[in-house]
Amino acid sequence: MRDTRAELLAQGEILVRKRGYSGFSYADLSQVIGISKASIHHHFRTKEDLAIALVAAYDRRYDEALARIRAETQDGVTRIEAYGHLYLNGLEQGLGCLCAALAVEQDTLPDALRAAVARFFDKHVAWLVRVIADGIANGSIRADADPEAHARMVVAMLEGALLMERLLAGPHGFTAALKAVTDTLRPAPTGRQ
């Protein structure tokens, strides 16, 4: 049996990640899925309703991935590398970050959607703050790292590299940028001053 709602979410996400919020319409979605615009409205009354559902589904997938990363290792740098690979997976599919694509249009987004995107990023910064603080505590991240500032730097670098490397060097460029940022967090080798 066809799960039209799931198809709408999957294809809607791809459209937003490629074109942005204002760059797609229900007509585009109708054409991709092969149903009428009225059928789409049956599942998502407005484009805002659809976008909020997209962010919620994306957020849930990230929650699961972040929990997996925390469970798999205690090493802070390894956790950040694994987090970066979540972005790399999107790049390999030719897709940007859903929430970054929406954030670019923050001034034109409906308030509820803008708030959902802000919550997504706030959650990621908070997760990284914990990862960095835990890494400092267990010695896997350099002791003088500022968890809040470095968490914001990691998110900003990953989002920027994802945007830029979709246009320039692709996965190779992204991987080099990720290595550069994680190298800044590694403790100095023992014996180095």
TrEMBL record:
Keywords, comma-separated and alphabetical: DNA-binding, Transcription, Transcription regulation
Highest taxon of the lineage: Bacteria
Every HTH tetR-type domain range: 2-62
A Gene Ontology molecular function term of the record: DNA binding
Residues annotated to bind DNA: 25-44
PANTHER family in alphabetical order: HTH-TYPE TRANSCRIPTIONAL REGULATOR YJDC (PTHR47506:SF1), TRANSCRIPTIONAL REGULATORY PROTEIN (PTHR47506)
Protein name, as recorded: Transcriptional regulator, TetR family
